[in-house]
Automatic annotation (TrEMBL):
InterPro entries: AAA+_ATPase (IPR003593), ABC_transporter-like_ATP-bd (IPR003439), ABC_transpr_LolD-like (IPR015854), MacB-like_ATP-bd (IPR017911), P-loop_NTPase (IPR027417). One of its GO terms (molecular function) is ATP binding. This is ABC transporter ATP-binding protein. It comes from Streptomyces triticiradicis. PROSITE patterns: ABC_TRANSPORTER_2. Keywords: ATP-binding, Nucleotide-binding, Transport. The lineage of its organism: Bacteria, Bacillati, Actinomycetota, Actinomycetes, Kitasatosporales. It comes from the Bacteria. GO terms for cellular component: membrane protein complex; plasma membrane.
């Protein structure tokens, strides 16, 4: 579960099946009149060995949540743990090492190095860190992702889907505790996107990985075990075993709520009532 565990003693996350945890996570950008509250006291537990999707309207704080959980961004208030380690308050160097050792990233732009072949791209972060890949694990990742025949190809010689699979393998190569994926299918056609989602699903089911994915796409979210819905910097709902239809329906209610509260063309009471500015 995610939000329901808010009352537990925080920080005791090592053996309790929680890969990442936030309590009172608040992030404000700017100050004075231009200040934006991107995250408003968020409590969340990311369960180990599960595939969690984060959805919500544009500007609701999805990327900010991911960046704060991954230690890519500082927080304004609150605490974040990765496994049993509190990362809020860590020095830059410690944070960099922790990210390198324990987190894999997949972004919309694959960030592959054009002059390196697929195999070299996959192990690059480990090479830079001076780590030796676990060859058995690496072989398993490469075979699971169907990249065995493409290892000598450079990115330009690969399709978009294959490039994203290389990015996926790179994120998995060091067997990170947690993989953060930000719109990993955003640049792909639907077939390639489905492939990548299938591989992320397999990474969870067959390789025991933990995945957190930010997405706008209800179809993509349907591959997850749990969807967290963000609105106005707060987690306002969650859905277990989501279907694309159910997620789409839930997202539509955000639109209705937003239009209603903007007072432009809303039908009073037309929204779910779940997502109000003064909820809680
Ligand atoms: N560096 C920044 N400086 C100022 N405001 C920011 C910054 N980054 C994000 N914000 C603001 O914080 C809020 C949350 O942004 P965030 O990118 O987390 O939303 P999102 O849900 O990921 O949006 P999208 O779906 O459009 O990518 C937005 O109002 C955004 O304008």
């Amino acid at each position: 579960m995610s939000t329901a565990a808010a009352e537990q003693i925080p920080g005791r996350a090592e053996g309790d099946g929680i890969a990442a945890r936030a309590r009172g996570l608040t992030k404000a950008y700017g100050s004075g009149e231009t200040a934006v509250l991107a995250l408003d006291s968020v409590d969340v537990d990311i369960a180990r060995g599960r595939f969690t999707a984060v959805m919500g309207p544009s500007g609701s704080g999805k990327s900010t949540l991911m960046h704060c959980l991954a230690g890519l961004d500082t927080v304004s208030a609150g605490q974040v743990w990765l496994g049993g380690t509190e990362i809020t308050g860590l020095k830059d160097r410690e944070l960099t090492r922790l990210r390198r050792d324990r987190i894999g990233f997949m972004f919309q732009s694959f960030n592959l190095i054009p002059t390196l072949n697929a195999a070299e791209n996959i192990t690059l972060p480990m090479d830079i860190a001076g780590q030796k890949p676990d060859q058995k694990w690496l072989d398993q990742v490469i075979d699971t992702l169907g990249l065995r025949e493409r290892l000598k190809h450079r990115p330009a010689q690969l399709s978009g889907g294959q490039q994203q699979r290389v990015a996926c393998a790179r994120a998995l190569a060091s067997r990170p505790e947690l993989i953060f994926a930000d719109e990993p299918t955003g640049n792909l056609d639907s077939r390639a996107g489905l492939e990548v989602l299938g591989f992320l699903r397999e990474a969870v089911d067959e390789l025991g990985q933990t995945v957190v994915m930010v997405t706008h796409d209800p179809g993509a979210a349907a591959h997850s075990d749990l969807v967290l819905f963000l609105a106005d910097g707060r987690i306002v709902d969650e859905m277990e075993r989501p279907s694309a239809e159910a997620v789409l329906e839930r997202m539509k209610r955000f639109d209705t709520a937003r239009v209603t509260f903007d007072g432009e063309r809303g039908t009073p009471g037309g929204g779910s009532g779940d997502v109000t500015p003064d909820k809680d």
